[in-house]
Amino acid sequence: MERCPWCGTDELYVKYHDEEWGVPVHDDHKHFEFLVLESAQAGLNWLTILRKRENYRLAYDNFDANKVANYDENKVNELLNNAGIIRNRRKIEASINNAKHFLEIQKEFGSFDHYIWSFVNHQPIKNQWQNTSHVPAITELSDQVSKDLKKRGFKFLGSTIMYAHMQAIGLINDHLTTCFRYNQV
Questions:
Q1: Alpha carbon of 185 to those of 65, 133, 156: distances in Å?
Q2: 16 among known catalytic residues
Q3: Catalytic status, residue 140
């Protein structure tokens, strides 16, 4: 069974690749989880974040955007002292800021899902990459989504992070054509 080579042989990475990456997400709770994790990943390896995912789940009230939006300085300090997550003040503060704007988008569009999927007319883009070296890190679409989120006040969600995010939540199918998951998602 052939997989995208980026997941290697690490059990956690393989499980993520096989069960989550590229599967279309339509649940706002899951969207918020990925936004928090993707923004925390900036400048780091995704496997590092996957290994800390359960710690994030505990630290961030199971990724409840309503709760995260109300975090205060005491909670920020608690998170800064939590060795189980990335202890970067700017990223932590961005996650709280982003929760507030996430809720605003839900209010404006009815759901974050409707908002994010509108960028692809509610249909996944199915690329046909045969080699990982062909897969881009950014595209005009990721630039557009990132720019719109920044205009709405989001932080730590640049074009590269947004492209990775769109891959993760299935807006874009970037499994290689030789990967067994390509036609499944």
A1: 27, 21, 28
A2: yes
A3: no
